[in-house]
Design brief:
The structure is a single chain. The protein is mostly helical. The protein has 16 helices and 2 strands. The protein has one domain: Orthogonal Bundle (Farnesyl Diphosphate Synthase), CATH 1.10.600.10. It has helices at 3-22, 28-39, 45-53, 62-87, 98-101, 104-125, 127-151, 159-184, 189-216, 219-222, 228-231, 237-245, 248-259, 265-277, 280-299, 306-320, and strands at residues 91-92, 95-96. Strand 1 (91-92) and strand 2 form a beta hairpin.
């Protein structure tokens, strides 16, 4: 393990302490829900990206970057809580979701609580520029989620519609995490732009892979149900490609499933088999690799520091992950 990797893991451990302190509450229910979420763990991808991005600045104020890293993770956790409510997901990270463990009201309010905790950290450590950037991202995420709801049951969704949606849902937030790290460390405009572009392309690749795993991933490895998007009658990139390129029985069957009021597990399995046979899954994976190449290209504008190698490793993880 290199010195930078050792330092990063030590900083992530400090971020974990800040997260626990940020959600600490005397109220028994609030405290129990918050601890339940933190104990579930997670990849901590967004704080990891922010901390790595901060190595490209003229200075690196450690306490500020640690607290900003905790803030973006709290926001991410809040979005997962709200997503699970919208998707009616029974499981997350191998555990019952909050609305299953408690109820829907608790899940929604728990997400609101995490947003407020994140805002407190941003107010103390971020400054006006961080506030503006995060506010813009949250607004975009809400727009993306609403657009996604409007797409359910529709067979006329285009690839452009899909990419615009995942940009708002995922890519802009990840890009902002990278930019925030650079801003906190007073990186020059060129480095900030390169890190923002890196994060954007990484986020696009991440969401495409996420949507593919929802179709063909291993439920146990992922710790959550698969087939959720199809169950909601949502066309992601493999289905959109099938509808655009392929005709005949395959297209007809996919259209029928999207038009159904409910989608049975057997229908999900049938559609997944169609998508695999026609190469639609491979098409989506190739799109993810294209975005990953864009992320790597953005890194070439940055100094050849150990942190850049860390960011490159994350690209490789994103396109090969199975959970």
């Amino acid at each position: 393990m290199t010195g930078t990797e050792t330092s990063l893991e030590a900083e992530l451990a400090e971020v974990e302490q800040i997260l626990h302190k940020a959600v600490d509450c005397d109220d028994p229910l609030v405290g129990e829900v918050s601890r339940y979420l933190l104990r579930a763990g997670g990849k901590r991808l967004r704080p990891r990206l922010l901390l790595l991005a901060a190595w490209f600045g003229r200075r690196r104020p450690k306490r500020r970057t640690l607290h900003l890293a905790a803030a973006v993770e709290l926001l991410h956790m809040a979005t997962l809580l709200h997503d699970d409510v919208v998707d009616e997901s029974p499981q997350r990270r191998g555990r019952p979701t909050v609305q299953v463990r408690w109820d829907t009201r608790t899940a929604v309010l728990g997400g609101d609580y995490l947003v407020a905790a994140a805002f407190e950290l941003l107010a103390a450590w971020g400054g006006a520029e961080a506030w503006r950037g995060v506010a813009t991202v949250i607004r975009a995420m809400a727009e993306g989620e609403m657009q996604e709801q409007a797409c359910c049951g529709r067979a006329d969704v285009t690839e452009q519609d899909y990419f615009e949606r995942i940009e708002k849902k995922t890519a802009l937030f990840i890009a902002e995490c990278c930019r925030l790290g650079a801003v906190a460390a007073a990186a020059d405009a060129g480095a900030q732009d390169a890190l923002r572009r890196y994060g954007y392309h990484l986020g696009m690749a991440y969401q495409v892979i996420d949507d593919v795993l929802d179709l063909v991933g291993d439920r146990l490895a992922m710790g959550k149900p698969t087939g959720v998007d199809l169950g909601r009658r949502l066309a992601t990139l493999p289905l959109i490609h099938c509808l655009r390129v392929h005709g005949g029985d395959a297209q007809r069957r996919v259209r029928e499933v999207l038009a159904n009021a409910t989608v049975a597990d057997a229908e999900v399995a049938q559609v997944v088999a169609i998508l695999q046979d026609l190469g639609c899954i491979d098409y989506a994976l190739e799109a993810a690799r294209h975005f990953a190449a864009g992320a790597r290209a953005a890194l070439r504008a940055l100094p050849d520091l150990p942190a850049r190698a860390g960011l490159e490793e994350i690209v490789g993880y994103v396109v090969t992950r199975d959970r």
